[in-house]
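Changelog entry

Holo records now carry the ligand SMILES as an explicit input line rather than a separate metadata file. Below, a converted record for magnesium ion, shown in the new format.
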Amino acid sequence: MSDLFQNTVRKEDSYSAQDIEVLEGLEPVRRRPGMYIGGTDERALHHLVAEILDNAMDEAVAGHASRIDLELALDATVTIRDNGRGIPIDEHPKYPGKSALEVIMTTLHSGGKFSGKAYATSGGLHGVGLSVVNALSDRLTVEIARDRQLYTQSYSRGLAVGDLVGLGPVNNRRGTTIKFHPDPLIFGEGAAFKPERLYRMARSKAYLYKGVEIRWACDPELLGTDAVTPASETLRFPGGLNDYLTAALKDRKALTPAPFAGEVPFPGDAGRAEWAIAWPEDEEGFIHSYCNTVPTPQGGSHEMGLRAALIRGLKSFGELVNNKRAGQVTADDVFGGANILLSVFIRDPSFQGQTKEKLATAEAARLVEAAVKDHFDHWLSADPAASNVLLDHLIEKAEERQRKRQAKEMSRKTATRKLRLPGKLADCSRNTPDGTEVFLVEGDSAGGSAKQARNRETQAILPLRGKILNVASATADKMRANQELSDLIQALGCGVGRDFSSEKLRYERVIIMTDADVDGAHIASLLMTFFYREMPGLIQNGHLYLALPPLYRVSHGGKSVYARDDIHKEELLKTVFAGKKVELSRFKGLGEMQPSQLKETTMDPTKRTLLRVVVPDTHDPEMRGEVEQTKSLVESLMGRKPELRFQYIQDNAKFVQDIDV
Ligand SMILES: Nc1ncnc2c1ncn2[C@@H]1O[C@H](COP(=O)(O)OP(=O)(O)OP(=O)(O)O)[C@@H](O)[C@H]1O
Ligand SMILES: [Mg+2]
Ligand SMILES: [Mg+2]
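Structure line, unchanged by the conversion:
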């Protein structure tokens, strides 16, 4: 021993080498089962069966077994039998006097799946599963039929209770039988398997590999009131995942007449992918993914590959049929309501942990995406009518999602509106809405004039920059992102859409005040469209108005009169100013007016003229037709030609009422 070690003296209560244990054999499994089977609860208990079943499936997928029996007895003993090669029982070269079987049963990290020689694409890879089950069983018996001889050995809590014994010759039999009973010291007294859970496990394995037949049997006494799980059944599905999907859909209707299903080998003998996908009308979605028949409830790289293939395929189909709205659809929209089965077989998979709930092999994403993409493109273009139904459905879903998110954000904004009024709002000082009004003005310079011209107590000014978004053609997402609109909604405080509430409106009147030119009319019409679509109650309850700023000032001597438009100006020239040499000024915008002029002509309640915006009452059945008409009028007018809109605002007596307030 070196000096270093001699100089370290151990004191009574110190923490030293003596405290460091090295667990031998299978002791670590019994002391820390969580590391190997994720705990000692019901899920962990069922994982024991999964380990043994996985081994039998690996033997089948490797082409050596065609039949597996799974039996659950009344006393919670599980028997799993396959007709494969049988675990080798010859002496292991590294452990003289011990059979390979005993090494496998009692040593962690022992197995035939490390090199890929005996198995190509196996679910087993750690050399741990069977030894873990052995460690956690109070009784385990293994039977091997190999070379026409039958052998058996028994274990308890990871230790052999006797030697491997020969039971003599057998003829029509080969393979491995594992019969085990979970240790009550680990799982608790009376820990019981759920027949339904084991049955589903067995059935999904049969769907995953067409070349295997699984015979399920369960003591009928265990079934009790369970009407779904059979006491015995032979599970064999030549249709693979397609059969699985058909059974899962039962008689639910799907959006496309045929599911999207297929099977493709990966290039270079790297394994294969199989999938079956349907989009049921009820949108009750699920995804079951597997790697080498091991379920991966937490997904992983293979699912990522499938997502990428589906969303890419759908978007290119959208481009093909020239549907621009397809751009909004996300992988979540495609996946969310779908029934998806995905099974991959790959070499050397890598999972997270021994329970293998998530596939970590990065390569799988690329392999699956490449394998599925072309097939999906073909499937979509083979039946364009059906594919369009699917696409439209997914687009609607995407838009619904955006609407919901928008409504949520809006309601959050209105909830905090007292604290967070938009910075550019010049609010009025009166605390109640009674007798107050807010002017929506175009641009900061007009806003500046209006602020000076207003009555601070009752009049608020909200300058809106530039043209607000044309809401008639905007997507919900764009609308939400528009700063001007969200400021407007915040300032009004009454909410939008379904959240609209007249009582919360912060002003008695909402007055649109834009320049008396075509641009101004455009902005006014955009705002009216916005209110019509998002806050119809505001109009129905008579809160929305248009201000009427003048376009000209006509003066002669000390006398000035303002003209609203050209017709009004001509009229004045012929009447009030007939034969006189007048001074004529045209206002390019509200910002050009003196605050006093603006006040006098447009804002002062005692002198101005306002137009009230009205729509027919939606609650009056006799007016329904007109409501529809107004709606289509709004939709079409808010489209292209600004002159048309201008005309519309000027002329449409039904929509806009001349009123003095
Ligand atoms: N039913 C079987 N038929 C043939 N060989 C088997 C069978 N079950 C187990 N084996 C052999 O025993 C080895 C150990 O199995 P075990 O379940 O402990 O580990 P594994 O399957 O290699 O990996 P994992 O820990 O991921 O399950 C396997 O690699 C295989 O060689
Ligand atoms: Mg295994
Ligand atoms: Mg092992």
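Spot-checked after migration. The longest helix spans residues 384-415. The pocket of magnesium ion (ligand 3) is lined by residues 104, 110-111, 127-128, 130-131 (CB under 6 Å).
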